[in-house]
Design brief:
The chain has 224 residues and is of the alpha/beta class. It is built from nine helices and ten strands.
């Protein structure tokens, strides 16, 4: 697992202890002109929506990077994730029609990534998507190449962020914060970004991971 924390860890590809340098997307070498899905995972409150929004702004003029708009059976929250909303019945119909590349269930809701995201990756693009830790086996079976970006934040910070959202009672917040993430600890090729500190540091690390993937895909495709 690669760990990035703050300005220099992200830009220079240095591990937390500074012991070795690495290209965080150096494994993107074997799939020819096919692209890559950057699957963003992490507990609620770790900052996935915020970092994705900032990265979308940073890559707004780049046609080779797609920020995937999910479909969720929940109304969108102002200031949170910008997603499409469907009723459970409509979601099921769209799913049966094959319009999702991947779907999963979590917290009593249904989530889907559109089939267009898979087409974009197969055409050599880089797609960035907010995913679920529990759905990664399915995601990795569908997309030709996947790199995981796992966001982390200290427990106290997670609890405060969740409380500020006002979606859940305190007991549920405590359960979320204490939930283990063993299913991701065993996965390879995971980039870990610590979002416990200044937002600008985590945002820069996140953007640098996408930029590194962009350079690798360009090198493989022989394009700029």
């Amino acid at each position: 697992m690669y760990r990035l924390s703050g300005r220099y860890g992200a830009r220079d590809g240095v591990s937390l202890n500074g012991s070795r340098r690495m290209n965080v997307v150096s494994e993107v070498t074997e799939a020819g002109s096919r692209g890559l899905l950057l699957a963003v995972i992490g507990p609620s409150g770790s900052g996935k929506d915020t970092l994705i929004r900032l990265a979308r702004e940073a890559f707004s003029g780049d046609a080779k990077v797609l920020f995937v708009r999910r479909t969720v059976t929940r109304e969108a929250d102002r200031g949170a994730e910008d997603h499409d909303t469907l009723t459970p019945a409509d979601f099921g119909e769209v799913e049966r029609n094959g319009e999702f590349a991947v779907t999963w269930d979590a917290h009593g809701l249904r989530y889907g990534l559109p089939s267009g995201a898979l087409s974009f990756v197969n055409a050599g693009g880089i797609a960035v998507a907010n995913c679920s830790r529990r759905a990664m086996a399915t995601v990795m079976a569908v997309f030709p190449q996947v790199r995981l970006i796992r966001l982390h934040a200290d427990a106290e910070i997670l609890a405060r962020r969740l409380a500020n959202r006002g979606r859940e009672p305190l007991e549920e917040i405590r359960a979320r914060v204490s939930r283990t993430v063993e299913e991701t600890e065993a996965l390879e090729k995971v980039v870990l970004i610590d979002n416990s500190g200044p937002l600008e540091d985590a945002a820069e690390a996140f953007i640098d991971v996408i930029a590194a993937a962009r350079r690798d895909i360009d090198r493989l495709c022989g394009s700029s």
